[in-house]
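REQUEST FORM: STRUCTURE PREDICTION
Request ID: SP-0412
Submitted by: Lab K.M.
Chain count: 1
Length (residues): 286
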Amino acid sequence: MKLLPKLLGVLVALFIAAPLFIVVPMSFSTAPSLEFPPPGYWLGYYAAYFTDERWTQPTINSLIIAFGTTVLTMLLVTPATFAVVRHRFVGRGLANLMLTMPMAMPHIVLAIGYYSYLGDLRLTQTHLGVIIAHTALSVPVAFLILSANLKGFDRNLERAAMSLGATPLRTFRHVTLPVLRPGFAISALFAFIQSFDETVVAIFISGRESETLPRKMFESIRMQADPVISVVSTLLFAAVALVILAPVVWKAVSRRRSRPDARGGEPVAKEPVPNPCAPTRVQLEA
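STATUS: Completed
RESULT:
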């Protein structure tokens, strides 16, 4: 019975990763379009991706927009989360509902609303307009993650710091922030991914100057089966795998360095270095 959950997990993981066994080989294909199995292998489409401005510029735009969305989302979510979780005020439930409402709305409906609103402000087809729209989509995810971390925070730590004379700002910097740092990091990461991977709103809001990578991929697959799409997919998968595996490798290396000595099973204690200035036993007895 213990093997059944593990086997089920392996099957689900293989099912999810199955498209990669098709996409990755196609990124090295010599075919003029998406074809599997590939008739041959080369790196021409990788060179096309890194040298063609039609692909590099949307990638840069996506990184700029995702970074701006992450910063703006955290600036809005952090005070909102502390206010909703720690304080009671009139309209607290409504504020909680408004912060999470974009998660329940279809993106196509939100995209039409953003297009109409940002169009009146002349922010369509601009980086700022896309950042504002993506921030509205990223706030619910970041809010839920950060509020879950904040609810489990022991406020006695803050009370102890302030009882010793620390100001609220110093308490936040030296007590609250270090404890909640993983929650802030995960919230920022999800905000970045939400913006970088978003397609529907980007199709409505972004233009030629602010075209994002998902929009470019959508238009490329609609117009023609460009094999560069498989290159982009492979690079994105490699980036995600690197982000996931880097902490695991770091922990494994750190654990190996702190492992006790293999011969005795305990860490080897260093012999104390004798102090030449210390009195000897003969001098003490004299």
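NOTES: The two ends are 75 Å apart (CA to CA).
Reviewed by: T.R.
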